[in-house]
Amino acid sequence: MEKINMVITIDGPVASGKSTIARLLAQELGFYYLYTGLLYRGLAAILVTHYGYNETQLKHPRKEDLDALLTGNRFEYRYEDGEPQIYFEGKAITGLLKTREVDNWSSISSADPAVRHAVLERQVSIGKLYNVVADGRDTGSVVFPDAVCKIFLTASLEVRAARWQRDQERLGKLFSLDESMQIVAERDERDRTRSHSPLVQAVDAYVVDNTTLSREETVSIIKAHVLKALS
Description:
Layout: E1 7-11, H1 18-29, E2 32-35, H2 36-49, H3 55-58, H4 63-70, E3 75-80, E4 83-88, E5 91-92, H5 100-109, H6 113-127, E6 132-136, H7 139-143, E7 149-154, H8 157-170, H9 177-193, E8 206-209, H10 215-230
Parallel strand pairs: 1-6, 1-7, 2-6, 7-8
Antiparallel strand pairs: 3-4, 4-5
Helix pairs in contact: 1-10, 2-5, 8-9
């Protein structure tokens, strides 16, 4: 009999805290953490640095390049010691994927249907191997529509912009709050209006607004809902 794994999805806009919350929730539940955004970042970065793509080419990557990259184990997602990692040809490249430049490349390439389909297949294959907490933009609506529990995490634009600003500061990038709000608002608009797999709240998702909540409070609320759903 085929093993049925449990999948919990956490979707939401940029800087809603979904990646942090999903990772902490996975640790508390003993689940595998699937950071879907890291897959897109890794794929985009490799297309630029290894295949020589420019931003125009990223809009529609060549099928032969996607096939070559995603066949076998050249491009791997691993969850090791509580941290998500991307490996390319056996070398960890995760540390190179946290820049605004890579974020922009990822946003461009992930709008392409062929890229979405290729990454979706990789995500689904991971969901067949483990009990998973997955975060992203469409994990509950498209990637894992039959997930046992779906969360949609959100917060005010001001709070999300401040979080994004702090994240960039940790990377040595300085932005004013006004600049951060503009960047986050533009990303929101792009994510909501893209023609393929836009940011969407699954109809059966449990909505959590963490504008005034700490990480610990957010995890506690979501964990309580998950345990209730699993009981």
